[in-house]
Amino acid sequence: MSFSGFIEEIPGLSVDSFREENFEKSSTFFLTHCHTDHTTGLINGFLNHIYANSNLILYCSSESATILKNMNPEHTNLLDNIIWTLPFNQNCFIPINGMSVGVTAIRANHCVGSCMFLFRTNESTVLYTGDFRFHWFELMDIKALHNNGWPIQLDNVYLDTTYLKQITYNFPTRKKAIHLLLNAIDDFLEFTAGQRIVHISRPANIGSEIIIQSLARKFNCQIHVDDECYNFYRGVEPVFSCMTNNPNNTFIHMCKPGKPGTNHFCNSPAALKIRLSAQWYAIQENTNWVQWEGARAVNIAHSMHSSRKELKAFLRYFKPGCAVALVIPDGYYQDEIQVELDYIACKAYNN
Ligand SMILES: [Zn+2]
Ligand SMILES: [Zn+2]
Fold it and tell me: Which of 10, 91, 187, 293 is deepest in the core (most CB within 10 A)?
């Protein structure tokens, strides 16, 4: 279950939603990032409607544009015709339904090219976060959401509610998680003799860019990824230079894990297996961010979405007029997530 894509305050635009209904009511589209649950129907939707409405436009960051084209090489022409890229942190005026709308793309700290969109009309100021991750002490660094050092007034926030219901989650910041990862590898290299291989499971096809760059810098080597992933990143720097699709070039692998018992790098007796995961951390009983299972397997907590605590801090800091839930996690109804969000937003407002 996901959000309809319509921004109530600005008719005629859709974000991260490419259903029939969106094409009937919108001619201006925005994409926050290239995870597949945000691009569903994009190619087919545009293919089906571009001839009926030649004014269809898709706005996204230039990194997302490159990845979209890499993911859909057979549709490069279509994408070149419809995509307009937005620079980060610059207010651009876009005509939508006869109205001039100010739009600013702001980095969302989620995956490469991912952005939040700040929409401004004469009537209202609205933030669409898409998927995002910010710790409370990172909020004051989001320049585009401040004016003379003060948080701007947001009338409405469309919020990444992935972990809104998870009261106990307390993830390390993304920086801290990388620090824990580098330390775990250091320990393994120090205390293990002979051939050494490190295999890190990627939580998703894209989203590990900062991790890949940090590993490459620290251990002065490229990181092996499978061909599919390698091709998605072609032209996206600096991360692409940190990758290799030749498994023999490096001792650090972030390729797709092989099946147990197969002759894959991750199953080698020389391998340290690392799992970066928010889900693992969520289900375990203790609250350690790092958990070793013997000398050759380690789990490390890592989340690309804000925790409930971070969402509360976000709402308390910006005090938006209201908030709309973007993500309805499996097992929940839209109403119950929205009620919870209203409750938290209202409490944040009154504190
Ligand atoms: Zn995402
Ligand atoms: Zn590999």
Answer: 10
Q: What is the pLDDT along the chain (351 residues), one digit of tens a residue?
A: 578 999 999 999 999 999 999 999 999 999 999 999 999 999 999 999 987 778 899 999 999 999 999 999 999 999 999 999 999 999 999 999 889 999 999 999 999 999 999 999 999 999 999 999 999 999 999 999 999 999 999 999 999 999 998 877 788 999 999 999 999 999 999 988 888 999 999 878 889 999 999 999 999 999 999 999 999 999 999 999 999 999 999 999 999 887 777 777 777 888 999 999 887 776 666 678 999 998 899 999 999 999 999 999 999 999 999 999 999 988 899 999 999 999 888 766 555
d(Cα 274, Cα 296) in Å, to the nearest integer? 8
Query: What secondary structure letter does DSSP report for 289?
Result: S
Q: How far is the CA of 333 from the centre of ligand 1 (A)?
A: 20
The neighbour count for residue 195, using CB atoms within 10 Å, is 10
CA of 206 to the centre of ligand 1 (A): 9
Q: What is the CATH number of domain 13-167+306-350?
A: 3.60.15.10
* 105 membership: H or E segment, kind and range: strand 99-107
**Domain ranges (residues) in the chain:** 13-167+306-350, 174-301
> Measured in angstroms, how far is the CA atom of residue 279 from the centroid of ligand 1?
15
Do the beta carbons of residue 159 and residue 326 sit within 8 Å? Answer: yes
- Enter the tokens of residue 165: 């219901």
Distance 202 CA to ligand 2 centre (A): 12
